[in-house]
Design goal:
By secondary structure, the protein is of the alpha+beta class. Helix content is 49%, strand content 14%.
């Protein structure tokens, strides 16, 4: 069964990812719903407690006002001003006793009238109430406080209002010698005196127990979470079953087709889930399509004793195929020109120059030439993926970037020393194997200082990808080694950030020139690179050739200095290393 065959691949299962992410979302949603339920229940509970405590405090204030305005004046009228009947004239005594009797029928409410220096020692403030005295005294405009307070392991919703002495209160709380004898006889001279009008007399507070209510609210939220969790996992089971039938099984069939390979041959796709594998397969298909667009002729089946297989990448005027020797099955790579393009004698001359350079030049980053069959070149097998394929996934890791550019700079420097200018450096023709070894597979637009340049002689316009071409090449000039240094600057920035320093939108040649001229220091990296690294990229991307590095060796020397000085780790922030695609 195809699904069973697919299950043997070493990939993370898409169904598992769907299950894990969906489970995380559902559990997180259930938890959030439960927390919101608890928060709302607690909010309603606090609002109810606030309303009830405000009612009680208003009742107490009404009692105290009645005593001041009605009872006390009446007692003075009946008994004279020298007489002070505590049971009928003391606001604190009356309000405290009335609320104590109310508490017998409503034990869930607790009223206290406290002071720092009371007549009645039973009204002395506790440590928390002492702190609240300081809080009210710090700002006399504070007229109310509410909050949850824990006492003896229980939680209470407490409301507090301050009470300030009026002039009529000073008789009983001012000088002790002026106080009514009935008051002194009951409470003595130890407390409640030496106040003046405007002082904070005391705090009236109502405490409502909320521990049981909060516990019930929390338990209700837990029950809601359990019910939500159970329902979520039942729904998740149904969704996973549906996802398996509608998505995973169909993907398995598609992947068994796109991953078709010879027995014993390693799959070109490794790592990721089914979508990642499918993405890679379509990426490979896209590269084949782009290659096919550059050469419309049909792929040959045989070149002499060599069997031509699938294309690897397209160059400027040729493409590279996989292949093997028909008899020995030895793996090789074949460089075959585009038939349609080579009908132009100018490009045919360029191909002759390219083939000669591959045969003449020797460098570890150039595939070894096995033989030449007519206008086709047989090379040693080129392994790995193109640099553009790796950069499509993101920037290179620090070690891989430095290793790649040490090879690339050395290769380009050897070109320039031999009088060769490449003119077309771009990530599509740079191949990296699993160890990070670099291979350049195309020199179709290269020139040699000892040979006539057919493109320059014919006065043709810009040749190559305008994204990577130096400004002088876009103007129609063939350029010199500094044009290759400009392309190295684009590749360096691309490899470090995963993005080109220019927009990839199509532009005219004049628009490209203006676009590349506008690059200023500080603009290209947008703060993602260190100043030292940005300086290297900015200099390599200078619009005027004389402001760039004049030698590749100078550019690599400064890059190497970043590594030696320990700056490189900050420069290229290891956004993503391609350990699965090769590295050092």
């Amino acid at each position: 069964m195809r699904i069973k065959q697919y299950g043997q691949w070493k990939t993370a299962n898409l169904k598992q990812r769907f299950f894990y992410w969906s489970a995380a979302i559902l559990v997180g949603g259930g938890l959030l719903l439960s927390l919101l339920s608890f928060w709302n229940t607690r909010r309603l509970l606090m609002a109810d407690a606030m309303t009830k405590s405000e009612v009680i405090l208003r009742e107490v204030e009404a009692i105290r006002s009645y005593v001041k305005e009605e009872l006390r004046p009446k007692m003075y009228e009946l008994h004279g001003r020298d007489k002070f009947i505590i049971e009928a004239m003391s606001t604190t005594y009356i309000s405290t006793n009335i609320m104590s009797r109310s508490a017998e029928s409503m034990p869930q409410y607790s009223y206290r009238r406290v002071s720092l220096n009371p007549h009645n020692p039973g009204n002395l403030a506790d440590p928390f109430e002492d702190e609240m005295f300081n809080w009210f005294e710090e700002d006399p405009t504070r007229m109310f406080w509410q909050g949850i307070v824990k006492k003896n392991g229980a939680s209470f919703f407490v409301s507090m209002v301050p009470d300030y002495f009026e002039v009529s209160c000073i008789r009983c709380h001012g000088k002790a010698e002026d106080a009514p004898k009935e008051l002194i006889a009951r409470y003595g001279l130890d407390g409640g005196f030496r106040f003046k009008a405007g002082d904070l007399a005391g705090i009236n507070s109502v405490a409502i127990p909320v521990s049981d209510s909060l516990r019930e609210a929390w338990q209700g939220s837990l029950v809601l979470f359990a019910l939500t969790l159970g329902g979520s996992f039942f729904l998740l089971w149904l969704l996973t079953l549906l996802f398996q039938r509608l998505v995973v099984e169909r993907l398995a069939v598609m992947l068994s087709l796109v991953n078709h390979r010879e027995p014993g041959k390693k799959s070109m796709f490794n790592g990721g889930d089914e979508i990642d594998v499918l993405h890679d397969s379509f990426g490979a298909l896209g590269s084949y399509v782009r290659s096919a667009r550059k050469g419309a002729s049909l792929q040959p089946n045989f070149i002499g004793p060599y069997v031509v297989e699938s294309p690897i990448a397209a160059g400027a005027i040729s493409w590279i195929y996989q292949g093997h020797v028909a008899k020995t099955k030895e793996k090789v790579s074949l460089k075959i020109g585009f038939d349609d393009v080579l009908q132009n004698p100018l490009y045919h001359a360029c191909l002759k120059t390219e083939l000669g350079l591959f045969e003449k030049l020797s460098h570890p980053c150039l595939p070894e030439v096995k033989e030449r069959v007519g206008d086709d070149l047989i090379l040693e097998e080129v392994r790995g993926r193109s640099l553009i394929h790796l950069l499509d996934k993101g920037p290179l890791g620090e070690q891989l970037l430095l290793y790649v550019f040490s090879q690339l700079c050395d290769l380009v420097a050897s070109f320039h020393a031999a009088g060769v200018v490449h003119h077309d450096l771009r990530p599509h023709i740079l191949m990296l194997d699993e160890q990070g070894k670099l291979n350049l597979i195309d020199m179709g637009l290269a020139t040699v200082d000892q040979q006539q340049d057919p493109i320059m002689a014919a006065g043709l316009g810009p040749q190559g990808d305008l994204l990577y071409l130096a400004p002088e090449q876009i103007r129609g000039e063939r350029g010199d080694p500094r044009s290759d240094i400009y392309a190295l600057g684009v590749l360096l920035y691309f490899s470090a950030t995963g993005q080109l320093p220019f927009s990839e939108e199509r532009k005219t040649e004049q628009q490209w020139l203006r676009h590349k001229k506008l690059i200023k220091k500080g603009d290209i990296s947008r703060g993602s690179l260190s100043e030292s690294f940005e300086q290297i990229a900015y200099r390599a991307l200078s619009y005027e050739a004389e402001k760039r590095y004049q030698w590749v060796e100078d550019m690599w020397k400064e890059l190497g200095a970043l590594q030696v000085n320990g700056v490189c780790g900050r420069t290229i922030e290891n956004n993503r290393g391609h350990s699965d695609d090769g590295g050092t």
